[in-house]
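Notes on consecutive records. When two proteins share a document, each keeps its own sequence and its own token line. Never mix them. Below: protein one.
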Amino acid sequence: MSGPAGAIGAVERFLDLEVKDVLEIAMRSPAGGGSEWDAFLGHLGLVPAAKDARTSRVKALELAKGALPGEVRMALHVISGMTSTQLDRLEQRWPIVLDESTPMARRVRALRSRLVGMVERDGGTYDKKVQPATGGGGGGHMGSIFANVRATKGMRPWANIEWKYSLTIQCPGCGAPQELATQFTCAFCTGDLLGRRDLFEEYSA
């Protein structure tokens, strides 16, 4: 028996490896995903989107490479849940890991903290790598900043700003993001994106 310290190390290695595999396999997949990505989803107990659904999303998102961002987030969501379950079992078996005076407790707390926001954090990093960039070039020099200040001196603050708002809808059942603005049925668990969370308890159980 390796004891609680060894068990914590196993959870740390599991999380590191699974997240690494998600991002690397997704990145090297053809646009929309491929056989290797599908096999990885199967390893997590997930069912890939249908071929025609993938094709339409690749076109809508203008993907040149990589698995669908929604599927990447679903994979990260499952890994986060699996890690949390492992930590729950570890804490039940070895209550000493809850003792804040021990290094083990700090390691467990660090793992819990990492899981908070992991899906959107790592999913957002993936998005930036596979989705086409928007906006103009990057001439972010200090000279242009000061030139802009001089040109706008005396203007009323915020007078010429056009405010734009964006909204990301997430499935209340599985956490997957809405990928198409006109789509209100989750492509992964088929739930209602505007429905109640308690309708999907059996999916996330």
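Protein two starts on the next line and is unrelated to protein one.
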Amino acid sequence: MKAVLSVLTLTALLVGCSSNPATMSNMETKLAMDEAKAKAAEQTLNAAPNWFIEPPVGDYGLWGTGTAYSNDLQFAIDKARLQAMARIAEGYKQEVSALRKSYKGESNSGAGQVFGDDTAVIDMLVDKADLSGSVVKDQVVVQERTGFRVYTLAFFPLGETNLIKQLRANEETAGRAAALAKNAHLELQERIGNK
């Protein structure tokens, strides 16, 4: 009897929904919107450069990719570049902390139901990473909807390949040498003056 009532109820609901033009119109509108979103997502994916999907590695440095969308082209460029630099900083100098908690219990109701909770928190901090010498290697701008999607590929050379950092280090070394020479000269003058 319950099965018959369930079938009758289900049939009545289906007939009611199928005969209601407003419900069908809403369903068709939602389906059309979902199809439009899927098409837009496919276009975004097709417009993405290969290096964005699979970033390069090696060449004695770190690579970072970024993407951003804005109605203002310069703002989209700035956001994408910042995102690419942040990815480089994550690989260059980061501190990661993780916390995981698990709890499992069993109810006393005699049914033997097991329940539990499992949580994980991962925190990543990048604190003052000097990215001097990093460069934008490639950038792609695509018109999307009423604005612009920008993809940016940035590179940060490491070690001796980073000319900016080498120049800065040479300047610091020269500055320290000049300061030491000045101090040595002053000491010599004091020694001569005391005699």
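For the record: Residues 108 and 114 are 10 Å apart (CA to CA).
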